[in-house]
Write a structure and sequence with these properties.
About 55% of the residues lie in helices and about 0% in strands. It has a domain of about 140 residues: Hypothetical protein, domain 2 (Endonuclease III, domain 1, Orthogonal Bundle), CATH 1.10.340.30. The protein contains 11 helices and 2 strands. With about 200 residues, the chain is mainly α. A two-stranded parallel sheet has the order 1-2.
Length: about 200
């Protein structure tokens, strides 16, 4: 089901008064709901999206995901829409300027990491294939009943972390990698009672 179709179906159900069950981590914030309903756990093989999500997961380290989501539009503006070639050439002066921008998370290490990760991404022959290789090329569908059952780390994430660090990436610890694999649909961790589970439990 396409994103717009999913959103329309949910809206129709809510108009009818039917309860829409979501994963327990999703709050009632409209930004969070939109992300949960249309993006999280949906298999993505688009290199641009995969790269953007990798950087956003790194920016999130030590913070809440909703904080990053709300700053995402500004990140797209100041980080060249997550164009890896432009980010790889980002100057120290530009990073200094970004440190004055209240619309993003002002962390110099994370901004420098964005440049470093862009350079590492460009060195990969096929970034999308590499990301998907950690789950054997197809989504890994789990069957957790409650979000508290979902682990913080999995073997696939540990493997990804080691491989990316070896390739020159930063801010790619196992926990970040697991969150990333969930986000881009490599690992499908919507709980079984979530309204998104049936559609996403079908492997590509």
């Amino acid at each position: 089901m396409a994103k717009t179709e999913t959103a329309a179906a949910v809206a129709a159900a809510e108009v009818r008064g039917a309860p829409v069950k979501r994963c327990g981590w999703c709050s009632d914030d409209p930004v969070y709901i939109a992300y949960h309903d249309t993006e999280w756990g949906v298999p993505s093989r688009d290199p641009q999206h995969l790269f953007e999500m990798l950087l956003l997961e790194g920016f999130q380290a030590g913070l809440s995901w909703i904080t990053v989501l709300k700053k995402r539009p500004r990140y797209r503006e100041v980080l060249f829409n997550f164009d890896p070639a432009k980010l790889a050439a980002m100057s120290d002066d530009y990073i200094d300027a970004l440190m004055q921008d209240s619309g993003i998370i002002r962390n110099r290490l994370k901004l420098k990491s964005a440049r470093q990760n862009a350079q590492a991404w460009l060195r990969l022959d096929d970034p999308a294939a590499l990301i998907w290789s950690f789950v054997g090329g197809r989504p890994k569908v789990n069957r957790y009943r409650h979000y508290t059952e979902v682990p913080a780390v999995a073997p696939e994430a540990e493997l990804m972390s080691r491989a990316l660090k070896k390739a020159g990436f930063n801010f790619v610890g196992p926990t970040i990698c697991y969150s990333y694999l969930q986000a881009v649909g490599c690992i499908m961790d919507h709980t079984t009672d979530c309204h998104r589970y049936p559609a996403l439990a079908v492997k590509e």
